[in-house]
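Long-time lurker, first post. I've been practising inverse folding by hand and with some scripts of my own, and I keep getting stuck on stretches where the structure tokens seem ambiguous. Below is the full token string for one chain I'm working on. Before anyone asks, I'm not after the true native sequence, just a reasonable design that respects the backbone. If someone could post their per-position residues I'd love to compare against what I wrote down in my notebook.
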């Protein structure tokens, strides 16, 4: 899933639905893409901050 944030960055959720219930997609990671700098940052699931 991709979402355009208000700050012109894109939030990207990567999910995996292998094994188990085919109706459930488990979150693998959340990332933020900045098209101005062409960089991707991964969200720290504990702090909720995007790390470089």
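-- Answer (accepted) --
I ran through it position by position. Result:
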């Amino acid at each position: 899933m991709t979402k355009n944030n208000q700050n012109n960055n894109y939030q990207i959720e990567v999910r995996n639905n292998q094994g188990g219930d085919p109706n459930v997609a488990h979150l693998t990671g959340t990332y933020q893409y900045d098209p101005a700098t062409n960089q991707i940052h991964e969200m720290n699931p504990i702090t909720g901050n995007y790390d470089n």
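A couple of notes from the structure itself: The chain is about 0% helix and 50% strand. The beta strands are 2-4, 10-16, 26-34, 39-43, 50-51. Happy to go over any region you disagree with.
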